[in-house]
Design a protein that fits this description.
By secondary structure, this protein is an alpha/beta fold. It has 3 domains: 33 residues; 162 residues, D-Maltodextrin-Binding Protein, domain 2 (3-Layer(aba) Sandwich), CATH 3.40.190; 103 residues, Osmoprotection protein (prox), domain 2 (D-Maltodextrin-Binding Protein, domain 2), CATH 3.40.190. Helix 2 links the parallel strand 1 and strand 2. The longest helix has 32 residues. The chain is globular.
Amino acid sequence: MKKSKFYILTIVLILIISALSACSSPEVKANEKTINPEDPIVLGSFVDTEGGILGNMVLLVLEKNGYAVTDKVQFGTPDVHRNALLQGELDVGIDYTGNGQYYSEGSQESIWRDAKEGYNFIKEYDETNNGLIWLEPADANNTEMLAVRKDFAEENNLKSLEDFADYLNGGGEVKFITSQLFAEKNMGLLGMEEGYGFKLKPEQLIFLPHGNTAETISALANGTDGVNVALVYGTDGSLPELDLVVLEDPLSIPPVFEPSVIVRSEVLEKYPEIRKIIVDAFKTLNLENLQIMNKKVIVDGLSSKDVAKEYLMEQGLLD
């Protein structure tokens, strides 16, 4: 009887060990195919919605191409994220070219109004001083912009700030909601007025003490207090949902803020192939598809990783 029990117990143990071995075999296979199994790339991004989308895009394409990645997507605020890159806590991060004006010294204000000049300046500065490599940015300027309702734009032939100046100077009615800071900046409303040749009167302005565009967008969508123009950010996710459009800014009065992936130089030297992998994904981005992806997270309630995965599959970058 004892022998029978022992025999059964032995068989059970053998079956359990076999099952565990079978379950672990795919992991061993995956490790054999992974380029850096003992040296995962530590990836971070800003804590906001767009940071989640962009971070997961990079995560997914790196994993697709055989790289082990430590996921720190939505790592923290811009200052926390920047410090983590400088200290080597992150190997790869995502930032915006316009933030280079705050990270560097010796630049002229006008540089940041030009997409190429701003990118080249912070790229050279960070590579020389900090060993950080800024990869080619996406063509999606997430800067401060003016937005109007789509029907209003169509009725008044408004596509750009030049059109807006013509509309205003021709006697068009305007009620603009904006932050106090933007209204007082040369790289904000003051610069727009000078560059495009218009001037808003005090009664045409509603000032907010903060830069929360959720409030300005809501006021515009609802026409609160007659608002028909609002300060927004270019890739705000609620813009397409509410049929709002941004007015083009040919003079780039506010600084250009294009998303770019930053890689520590020693990591890029070790794994040079990741440059093309990341840039190929980022060059598919533009203002409109980033707006739509942000909308899917903010309005539709999808996860940033699911939205990133769906987008990459549509672009043929994931199976």
